[in-house]
Design goal:
Elements lengths: L1 H9 L3 H18 L1 H20 L1
Helix pairs in contact: 1-3, 2-3
């Protein structure tokens, strides 16, 4: 998890986006666990793509 946080912090302005996405993700997980896992996977992929650019 430390590495993921380092990637997030390495991209300017991305922390706010991740925090907002986390809030939405928690809402989705509370209503539909499977959809929450898909959303989390998409967010993680987005973070790694942004960091590698």
């Amino acid at each position: 998890m430390v590495e993921l946080n380092q990637l997030v912090d390495a991209v300017p302005g991305y922390r706010d986006r991740v925090d907002a996405a986390e809030k939405k993700l928690r809402e989705v997980i509370n209503s539909d666990y499977e959809a929450g896992i898909v959303a989390f996977t998409n967010i993680a992929e987005d973070i790694t793509q942004k960091a590698s650019n």
